[in-house]
What we know:
The chain has nine helices and 21 strands. The chain is an alpha+beta fold.
Amino acid sequence: MVSKSEIERRYAAVRAAMDEHGVEAVLVCGSEYTGFEGAVTYMSGFVIVHRYAYVLLPREGEPSIVFPGEARYVGVHGTTWIEDQVFAERPGEWLAERLAGQRVGVYGLDYVLTVRDFVAVRDKVDVVPFDVEFDLARAVKSDEELESVRDSVRINTEGFHLFAGEYAAGKSAAEVLAPAERYFVAEGCGRLTMNMVLDGAEFAIARSEMVLGDFCIPSLEIAGPGGHWVEVSRALGTPNAEVQRMVEAYEEYFEAAKTALRPGATAHDAHRAVSKGFTDRGYHLGHVTGHSIGMTMIEHPKIGEGIETELRENMVFSMHPHVIAENGHDCLYMQDTWLVTADGGEPLAGLPMRVF
């Protein structure tokens, strides 16, 4: 479902990064770990069902997609647009022979590339980390990608309304989340959902033994059928006086982001602008203020202190200041997916910034 021109655009952007950073090829790694499969899908159209896969893009010539041999029947291999599909007993040994003597940028070197394959390539290939470089090459979304992003936002927002409609104090987290998860799967998300609730200041899986109180903070994160992740949620119920002060800071962040998320500003500048209401009140932020989001759940740049990456039009960010009180328990965490436009930041969900 990805157009030929969009595929060419993606490969051209990655090859421009190769030229800029002096590598002869890029190896993109993905695994079935939720949120880590997206880079392979972005580069090949293949959705990992089980195990892992690599996409090898040389500076010149056609790409290859490489699977461990046992993965031949645990994915729909006809979905990839890459013709050269390699099933290797040891993918690392195949890559070592193919790339011997070359300088290769690896996306996923720290978190995704398997140990057995790294051991096989490290002595023959000049392997360099390429996570930041690859993420920056795909940070600006095309119009085709933005259609997928907006569809994911639509699904996520409706899922929040379903969660809110089911929520009541005394219910279990599992039964409140169930209608939203049912809807997400029906809309084509498959297993690309990572939906939780916060237990105090900590993220927790929504299980049947977790009984919700009179204040609830859901964390709803999904990728629609186009594969683009988004995050949209609001807190529910009755906040105490401490959390109500946090709500006031959230309202300030929401307005500040509309001007801070603009082309030419840095991620550092945006972070300072949107976090000011929290820091002025003496609060700590427990999670990153925001981050680029695409077919991988968390991409570079993050919206954070000291990140001097310049924002560009059509970048997409998940924003979610995680504000924690001094007691370590009271907190607030509400998510939005934002688009950087020529006129500033646009929150795509259209939800008012308030506790529902």
